[in-house]
C-alpha cells in the first residue's frame, strides 16, 4: 500500500457542473467503484470526487443504447437490452470481468477511463462503434471510443472533464462476439478480442475487429476488416483476416505471457470471434 496516498478532501456532488468544477482542482480524481484507484493509489491525489450521486447509472434505448458511466458490470449483466445482438458482445465482456463480487462494484466508466490495455469493455464497445459522451466545464463533447485512448493510462480527457455516458448506435443485421484468454477465469486478459459483422444478402458489408492487451491502447485491426468486407463468409476468409490482425499486434512479454504467445493467441481469438459473430449475424446462435 502506498503510504503517500492521503487525499485531504472528499466531495460527493449531485450535479454535473459542480463535479466538473471540483475536478478542475489540482490533484482531483474521480472515484466511483474505486476498484482500480484504491489499488494504484496515485501519490499526487489530493481530492476525491465521488460521482455516484450524479445519476449516471442507467441503460436505456435511445437511438441505439445509452449507458451511464457509473453503471456497474452487474447492472450490465442484468439488463435485457444487452441480450439482443449485436449488443450481447458487451454482455459477454461484462461476464468476463473478474469475480462476481468485483462486478457488483466495478463501473463501466472506470474500466474505460483507467485506460489499461487489458480492459475488456473498451474492446467490445469499440466493435460497436461506441461514442464517449464527455462532460466538462464548458459543456459536453463527444469522441469516438476508438479515439478516446492515447496511451497506457492516458485518455483525451482534459482538466475538469469526466466520462458521462457511452452511446452505442443502432446496428441492424449484425452479430458480434467477444473472446478472452486469461491465466484463470478471474484474471485480467492475456489477450482479448471482439468482432462485429453486418451482413447484406449473405455478404459481409461492414466489420469491426478489435484486440486488447497487445498494444498500448485497444487496437482496431482495420486491415483485417478490409479482408472481410465485401466478401461472403468462409472459414478460410476468417483465417486470413485473423492472421492479418495478429500481424498488426505489438504485444509485450511479461510475467504473464511472452509476446510470441500473445500474438499466436491473437490469431486464435480473432478467428473464433469472426466465426461466432457470423453465426450470430445469421441468427444461428
CATH superfamily of the domain at 174-281: CO dehydrogenase flavoprotein, C-terminal domain
Radius of gyration, CA atoms, in whole angstroms = 19 Å
Q: Major β-sheet, in short?
A: 5 strands, antiparallel
Measure the end-to-end span.
46 Å
Structural class by sheet pairing and helices = alpha+beta
Strand sequence of the main sheet, in spatial order? 4-5-10-6-7
What is the CATH topology of the domain at 174-281?
Enolase-like, domain 1
Helix-strand pattern, N to C?
EHEHEEEHHHHHEEEEEEEEEHHH
Number of DSSP-assigned strands: 14
| Count of DSSP-assigned helices | 10
Please state the overall shape, judged from the principal axes of the Cα atoms.
globular
Mean model confidence by pLDDT: 94
Low-pLDDT segments:
none
Q: Which second-level CATH architecture of the domain at 174-281 applies?
A: 2-Layer Sandwich
Helix content: 25-40%
**CATH top level of the domain at 174-281?**
Alpha Beta
β-strand percent reads 25-35%
Description:
- The radius of gyration is 19 Å and the shape is globular.
- The protein has helices at 16-23, 37-40, 73-78, 88-94, 100-103, 108-113, 121-127, 222-228, 235-248, 259-281; strands at residues 9-11, 28-31, 47-50, 59-61, 65-68, 131-136, 139-144, 149-151, 154-155, 162-168, 174-182, 189-200, 203-212, 219-220.
- It contains ten helices and 14 strands.
- 48% of the residues are buried.
- The mean pLDDT is 94.
- Among the domains are: 9-50; 174-281, 2-Layer Sandwich (Enolase-like, domain 1), CATH 3.30.390.
- α4 (88-94) runs antiparallel to α7 (121-127), α8 (222-228) packs antiparallel against α9 (235-248) and α9 runs antiparallel to α10.
- Strands 4-5-10-6-7 form a five-stranded antiparallel beta sheet. Strands 11-12-13-14 form a four-stranded antiparallel beta sheet, sandwiched between helices.
- The longest helix has 23 residues, at 259-281.
- It starts with 8 loop residues before the first strand and ends with a helix.
- By secondary structure, the protein is of the alpha+beta class.
